[in-house]
Amino acid sequence: MFFRVVSPVSKIALAFWAGLILGLPAIAHAGETYIPETDPLVLQKIERWRDLKFGLLMHWGPYSQWGIVESWSICSEDEPWCRRKNPNYDDYKRQYVALKNTFNPIRFNPDKWARAAKEAGMRYVVFTTKHHDGFCMFDTKTTNYKITDKDCPFSINKRANIAKAIFDAFRRQGLWTGAYFSKPDWHCPYYWWPNFATPDRNVNYKISRYPDRWKKFVEYTHTQIRELMSNYGPMDILWLDGGWVNKNNLGQDIDMDGLAAMARNLQPGLIIVDRAVPGIHQDYLTPENRVPDQFIPYPWESCITSDGGWAWTPDAHYMPARKAVDTLVEIVAKGGNLLLNVGPAADGTWDPGAYHLLAEIGKWLKLNGRAIYATRPVKPYQSGKLAFTRGKDGTIYAIYLAGEHEREIPRKITIPVSILKTGAKVHLLGHPTAFACEESPKGWVVSIPEALASRPYCDYAWVLKIR
Ligand code: GLC
């Protein structure tokens, strides 16, 4: 589900004008727009973030008790992801809100998740501190609709401040931390005013007619962000979802300039991702549940579900590890990062399928991580079954993505001439001997010795190192 706020054409126009007004260069590529940051600390941080390549996204909240789509069932839009099990909206909404009174993930053990993520080769985590339904998975002074409220049974647990426990645990494993935060808030009376019905995802009153109410919403949002940026240790990323909250849509202006300045005052260099809102506050782009068709020349990250949904669902089928490795390689070759989602269950556990998937990816990355981390894209990015990356020392990696039934490395692999220069040496990653190469009309044909080819050093994808 990717909700475009404006059409790609108007996005480009918007960015172009924004660029002119701010005096910044806007880059447009394949229908997407990027306006580079100017704060040197943020620029440095984005460059370091580009080295991380692989992160974990987690969607978790009281909705996980029902195994449904996160938040969307209380939104009255006639969309498949808004369907409810009880068609009476008022009854349903009351029951949904009451999920707070039964949410009790007593098996919550963030250290176990953090270790699994680290073993998987993940280098950062982004966690839903608040989704569109407005339930705060952190302690806040702004509302009782939160995990630490006395009516929520988990509030007496020593890890009741879930966001804090997660960020601390992942940081202990050396991962960067990012706060997913929904700008729209369907519980806050300053966003969905109970005075009116709620026909869609947007603010449900006219901001121009009730500017004071909107002002309270802006303050509410800024206060929550201030709490998250003050009380949760060093934060690396602020991942703002709900792109329809932006000043060009119904005047939903939450003063992003002020918000960003406040957040960076507390967390210097903070990466801010105002998703799907072209402009200075979208430090990287976030294509959703897809791998872009081509290389993108600015910072980006694909967020992708591991089992077809963001929130936990019963009987989930996790993607095969081969698919995950392929996806990671393809994304990295095109210059992006992969943010893979796992939805924890209501009792505070992950499904065994999630652990298995992560462990398999980790096994592959342990042997081949050199071809992934801290690399940069190199033309032609991909060609047939090969994907290419370039290490900072100039080493080029050609990653052969094996097909589902391919168990042996091909005896001959053809590498484009632009990648393999005369005199270069080609090895299999971790193997000392260089292979013989022969020039052909299609490129250099590398011969892999039988002994290595018939017993591949790992599953899914094999890396040739070119120097
Ligand atoms: C989609 C979903 C939203 C989810 C987001 C994650 O926009 O609608 O619920 O949080 O994807 O990228």
Can you offer a commentary on this structure?
The chain has 467 residues and is α/β, with parallel strands linked by helices. The protein has two domains: 11-371, TIM Barrel, CATH 3.20.20; 376-466, Golgi alpha-mannosidase II (Immunoglobulin-like, Sandwich), CATH 2.60.40.1180. The chain is built from ten helices and 17 strands. The protein has helices at residues 8-22, 40-52, 89-98, 110-119, 162-172, 211-230, 256-266, 321-333, 352-368, 450-454; strands at residues 27-29, 32-34, 54-58, 124-130, 176-182, 237-241, 271-274, 301-305, 337-342, 376-383, 386-390, 396-401, 412-415, 426-428, 437-440, 443-447, 461-466. The protein has a seven-stranded parallel sheet with strand order 7-6-5-4-3-9-8. It is elongated, with a radius of gyration of 24 Å. The two termini are 42 Å apart. It binds alpha-D-glucopyranose (GLC). Residues 1, 59, 70, 241, 288, 303, 310 line the site of alpha-D-glucopyranose. Alpha-D-glucopyranose binds next to loops.
What does the main sheet amount to?
7 strands, parallel
Taking strands numbered 1, 2, ... along the chain, how are they ordered across the largest sheet?
7-6-5-4-3-9-8
CATH topology of the largest domain: TIM Barrel
Intertermini distance? 42 Å
The radius of gyration over CA amounts to: 24 Å
Order of helices and strands: HEEHEHHEHEHEHEEHEHEEEEEEEHE
Mean pLDDT: 93
Strand content: 15-25%
Low-confidence stretches: 1-24
Fold blueprint:
Blueprint: H1 8-22, E1 27-29, E2 32-34, H2 40-52, E3 54-58, H3 89-98, H4 110-119, E4 124-130, H5 162-172, E5 176-182, H6 211-230, E6 237-241, H7 256-266, E7 271-274, E8 301-305, H8 321-333, E9 337-342, H9 352-368, E10 376-383, E11 386-390, E12 396-401, E13 412-415, E14 426-428, E15 437-440, E16 443-447, H10 450-454, E17 461-466
Parallel strand pairs: 3-4, 3-9, 4-5, 5-6, 6-7, 8-9
Antiparallel strand pairs: 1-2, 10-11, 11-12, 12-17, 13-16, 14-17, 15-16
Helix pairs in contact: 4-5, 4-9, 6-7, 8-9
Alpha-D-glucopyranose binds at residues 1, 59, 70, 241, 288, 303, 310.
